[in-house]
Design goal:
19 strands; 2 domains; 369 residues; 3 helices
């Protein structure tokens, strides 16, 4: 009798364990669905958010390790508000969005930001949500990154679209949105390709930080380039390109605000034929930038610059080196706001171009054989 009871107990325990194992397997299956990241951390994060896999628009879920701190990973998790498909399987949907910083190994959420009704998609289609890690920190303690989203219109004869970016800064257990801007915008009109007639315009904006800080954060600049083309019979009949459209931002009270003036310098290598180097000296006049260039380049050809900025056009020649027969220096003014400084030798020509704008002086250095 006792032996029979013991056997029954063993059978009941085994059945109970099997059922528990089955339940655990079912729970695991419930949290994993097709298209989800093959990552245990994703399930850990969903549990902290009180979400299930089916609640998320998985196509736009993304993650990326923070380059400046690999112990942290950025996550973007869009939550579905509504989702419909038409007879052609085209989707229209609305999404909330979680932006998170989580421990890379454990998945524990460290900081978060939640935006209700963040995105919608219909005829103007949301094409993606991505993470932009930036190669600098806002200051020694704050991590900055961007979340980008792109939209495209559905019309072939009226192409249109834009890409937006929002910058976030870690603030304890929160992520603060500190700056939003349009990184790219385009639109146009054509006849559908039959005759190759139409026009197209495009704006591209890049974000650059200066070397000057306000309230512990660098002043920021947005540079926008504009391109326009008009075509007839598949030939470009009119086009234009413009640059140096500049917006300025200073950090104040947990956000970046647009301002008319900032300080600091931005230098970029130029590879599009405009020069080999281009620098923006914010808050500096042409005369002030001239003195900066004169002092910083005493060991190059620019050591032959006049110590004081000439007040009018100037040309002079001098013997420089056994490998260079002579050097001709030209100062050419368009007006007091524009100066072209040219160094000509038998080896080539170097150019220093100064353009004084309302909020900065632009300096371009170029060289031609």
């Amino acid at each position: 009798m006792k032996r029979t009871i013991i056997i029954l107990i063993i059978i009941l325990v085994a059945a109970s364990c099997n059922q528990a194992s089955k339940n655990n397997a079912d729970e695991t299956t419930d949290t994993i669905c097709e298209g989800a990241p093959a990552n245990e951390t994703f399930n850990t994060i969903l549990q902290q958010l009180g979400l299930e896999c089916k609640d998320c628009y998985l196509e736009f879920v993304s993650e990326q390790t923070v380059p400046a701190n690999e112990d942290l990973t950025i996550w973007v998790i869009p939550k579905i508000i509504s989702l419909e498909k038409d007879n052609y399987n085209n989707e229209s949907f609305s999404l909330d969005c979680y932006v998170l910083l989580a421990d890379t190994k454990t998945g524990k959420v460290v900081s978060r930001h939640y935006t209700p009704d963040a995105y919608s998609s219909d005829a103007y289609m949301l094409t993606g949500i991505g993470i932009d890690t930036l190669d600098y920190r806002l200051n020694d303690n704050k991590i900055i990154f961007g979340i980008s989203s792109g939209y495209n219109g559905s019309s072939g004869v009226n192409p249109s679209g834009h890409r937006s970016r929002e910058l976030f800064v870690q603030q304890n257990d929160s992520l603060l949105p500190v700056l939003s801007y349009t990184a790219r915008e385009y639109r146009g009109e054509n006849d559908g390709g039959a005759n190759g007639n139409g026009w197209f315009e495009e704006y591209n904006t890049r974000l650059v930080a200066t070397d000057h800080k306000s309230n512990g954060f660098p002043d920021l600049t947005l540079f926008t380039d504009y391109k326009f083309e008009e075509s007839e019979q598949n030939e470009v009949v009119r086009d234009s390109i413009s640059s140096d459209s500049i917006q300025l931002f200073r950090y104040t009270t947990n956000t970046y605000k647009g301002v008319k003036k900032i300080e600091g310098t931005v230098c970029e290598e130029i590879r599009d034929g405009y020069g080999k180097k281009k620098c923006y000296y914010f808050g500096k006049t042409l005369a002030e930038v001239y003195q900066i260039i004169y002092k910083e380049n005493e060991n190059s050809l620019q050591r032959y610059m006049q110590p004081e900025l000439p007040s009018e056009d100037l040309e002079y020649k001098m013997i420089t080196h056994e490998d260079v027969d002579s050097l001709t220096i030209n100062y050419n003014y368009k007006n007091k706001k524009n100066l072209n400084l040219e160094f000509s030798t038998d080896m080539g020509v170097e150019y220093c171009i100064f353009n004084e704008k309302e909020n900065c002086t632009i300096f371009i250095y170029d060289y031609h054989d």
